[in-house]
């Protein structure tokens, strides 16, 4: 019988339900919590979710969870976990730590005691009395304590899932790829409709839309830490990727455009799209947002314009928002989605949003202002 693991997909605040929907589409029962979504799966599922999830940050194995209010509790419970199933006698395993609203509040102590308990377990399992060499495969562990409830995890991902591997260049303040994918998935876009990003920057939103439009798994061209661990079935690396590759739709025609006022950003976006293998699917052009117009109908526009966060830049940002409103109101069949940290955006834009959704771009509170179009038959 194939072993089943308790897993979690971690996510930025506000994106957990999207990760849950993605897991549902992939066929997994799941439970949405703050900053994470739990599910169970085999080794194949660990790799499959790493390759397919567009909006998650990482896939972690929950090695164990328990309540602890003393360091003795923590030590004994961690030591009781089957670490030899995940770590070799020579594995390199740093322990990260977090604690909030708990008796064990000193994170350095929590990390040190967790590490000591794992070392003790491995020394017993492998009959070693000397120090563990830690020069083998890498395994990032984390001990999280929240209201005295402890969850100990092993990261299977490595570099965060937003690192798709296609971005060879970026401008200032680029959106993370998984956040850009979330912005697309929060719209009513379907691949048979036009898609426009009028402030495209390094092209991330348009590229993520093309990956979604072609049903290309976002993690297809990168590796994951779990593939280097010797308990992992290496034959899965090719078979899971082959299965994902077979689901891509390379025949569909996409209508995706990205515009930016800065020609250097247009060049960077074009290069990134080529690196993603999507050079023919997206048209990038130099164009100011106020100069864009179209005869197409029923399109979707997603914009991440400058927020005007720096001193003296808010007036310029609000002038751009006003220009956007003037242009976009003439396109009633288009749905417009605009992300900004300026919570008074609607005043500058000149119209109240159909809906607004609170998100976090890193630590920054941002709102996603949505203007739903009236579809033309």
From TrEMBL:
An example molecular function term from Gene Ontology annotations: RNA binding
Q: Which CDD domains match?
A: THUMP_AdoMetMT
Q: Which UniProt keywords apply?
A: Methyltransferase, RNA-binding, Transferase
Give one Pfam family, short name only.
THUMP
Domain THUMP stretches: 45-156
Q: Report the PANTHER family cross-referenced here.
A: RIBOSOMAL RNA LARGE SUBUNIT METHYLTRANSFERASE K/L (PTHR47313), RIBOSOMAL RNA LARGE SUBUNIT METHYLTRANSFERASE K_L (PTHR47313:SF1)
Question: What name is this protein filed under?
Answer: Class I SAM-dependent RNA methyltransferase
Q: Which organism is it from?
A: Leuconostoc falkenbergense
């Amino acid at each position: 019988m194939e072993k089943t693991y308790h897993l979690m997909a971690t996510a930025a605040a506000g994106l957990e339900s999207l990760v849950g929907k993605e897991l549902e589409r992939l066929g997994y029962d799941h439970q949405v919590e703050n900053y994470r979504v739990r599910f169970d799966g085999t080794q194949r599922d660990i790799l499959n979710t790493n390759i397919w999830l567009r909006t998650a940050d990482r896939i972690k194995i929950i090695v164990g969870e328990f309540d602890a209010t003393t360091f003795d509790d923590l030590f004994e419970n961690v030591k009781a976990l089957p670490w030899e199933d995940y770590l070799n006698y020579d594995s390199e395993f740093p322990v990260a730590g977090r604690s909030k609203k708990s008796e064990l509040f000193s994170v350095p102590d929590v990390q040190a005691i967790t590490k000591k308990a794992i070392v003790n377990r491995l020394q017993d399992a492998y009959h070693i009395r000397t120090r563990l060499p830690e020069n083998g495969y890498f395994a990032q562990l984390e001990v999280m304590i929240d209201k005295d409830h402890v969850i100990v995890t092993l990261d299977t991902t490595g570099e965060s899932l937003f690192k798709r591997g296609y971005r060879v260049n970026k401008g200032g303040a680029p959106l993370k790829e998984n956040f850009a994918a979330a912005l697309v998935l929060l719209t009513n876009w379907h691949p048979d409709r036009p898609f426009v990003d009028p402030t495209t920057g390094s092209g991330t939103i348009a590229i993520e839309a093309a990956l979604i439009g072609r049903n290309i798994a976002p993690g297809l061209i990168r590796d994951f830490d779990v593939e280097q661990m010797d308990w992992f079935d290496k034959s899965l690396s090719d078979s899971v990727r082959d299965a994902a590759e077979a689901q891509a739709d390379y025949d569909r025609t996409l209508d995706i455009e990205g515009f930016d006022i800065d020609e250097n950003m247009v060049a960077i976006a074009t290069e990134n799209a080529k690196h993603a293998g999507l050079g023919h699917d997206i048209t990038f052009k130099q164009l100011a947002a106020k100069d864009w117009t179209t005869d197409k109908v029923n399109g979707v526009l997603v914009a991440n314009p400058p927020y005007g966060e720096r001193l003296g830049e808010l007036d310029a940002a609000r002038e751009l928002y006003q220009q956007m409103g003037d242009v976009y109101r003439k396109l009633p069949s288009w749905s417009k989605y605009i992300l900004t940290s300026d919570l008074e955006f609607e005043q500058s834009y000149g119209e109240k949003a159909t809906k607004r959704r609170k998100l976090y771009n890193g630590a920054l509170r941002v709102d996603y202002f949505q203007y739903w179009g009236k579809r033309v038959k």
